[in-house]
Design brief:
The protein is mostly helical. It contains nine helices and three strands; from the N terminus they run H-E-H-E-H-E-H-H-H-H-H-H.
Length: 227
């Protein structure tokens, strides 16, 4: 946001954001993914958010097609597209023009092995210079803020909307594959009958689990970005 507001004042181009977060592509998953609010979207154009409800998984091919289209449109308007997010496959499938499909073939671990096409765009990578000893406290503060902003209510609404007490629905839903939501769902399915946890003790355990899992993910993500 600071860059987008400062660049035009320095004679640079207007910025538009391309979301590069594989969880923010799902509608309704707002607080738990730290998705920007409508007020921010009105100040600065954002693309590739809320592509689909979480019970209909977005493939890498679908993301690649939409992001490529939006970047091309932004260039045509004379503006500068900036991809924001930490999903490596989302960033690289665009900047390296991966040859992706709707699903992996048997034995394939990822689409990167299929090779790359001719790069469609020139790209610069920008990463934070913060060290882990400063990042981890920020993660903990962010998780605490999510609970204060209503994460429990958001999870409850999504739980009821998608009937996530049913195991067959659970496995096919992006919520089950996302830190910040999965911890609630795992705790809920530990009990019989299945129910969302509501006690102060349970919620404290869930909050700590979210922090621990996000710490581990941040370490992997930070190592990848340093490359």
């Amino acid at each position: 946001m600071e860059l987008a507001e400062a660049l035009p004042q320095m004679g640079g181009r207007e910025i538009e954001i391309i979301g590069a977060d594989s969880r923010q592509v799902y509608a309704g998953m707002n607080i738990g993914t730290s998705k920007v609010g409508r007020d921010i979207m009105e100040r600065l154009p954002h693309h590739c958010l809320d592509m689909r409800p979480p019970d209909k998984m977005v493939t890498l091919a679908e993301y690649q097609a939409l992001a490529t289209k939006r970047i091309t449109e932004i260039h045509a308007r004379g503006n500068l597209p900036v991809m924001v997010g930490g999903t490596g496959s989302y960033l690289l499938c665009i900047t390296e023009n991966w040859q992706v499909g709707d699903e992996l073939l048997p034995g394939e671990e990822n689409f990167k092995e299929r090779g790359k096409g001719t790069p469609l765009f020139r790209a610069k990578f920008v990463r934070s210079t913060l060290e882990m000893n400063k990042i981890l406290p920020r993660i903990d503060n962010a998780v605490d803020s999510m609970f204060q902003m209503g994460l429990v209510d958001e999870v409850t609404r999504l739980w009821e909307q998608y009937k996530l007490w049913e195991p067959n629905r659970l496995q096919r839903n992006a919520l089950w594959h996302t830190h910040g939501y999965r911890e609630f769902l795992e705790k809920a399915h530990e009990t019989t009958p299945v129910r969302l946890p509501t006690s102060r003790r349970d919620l404290a355990e869930i909050a700590q689990a979210i922090k621990d899992h996000t710490h581990s993910y941040a370490h992997r993500q930070w190592s990848w970005m340093k490359k």
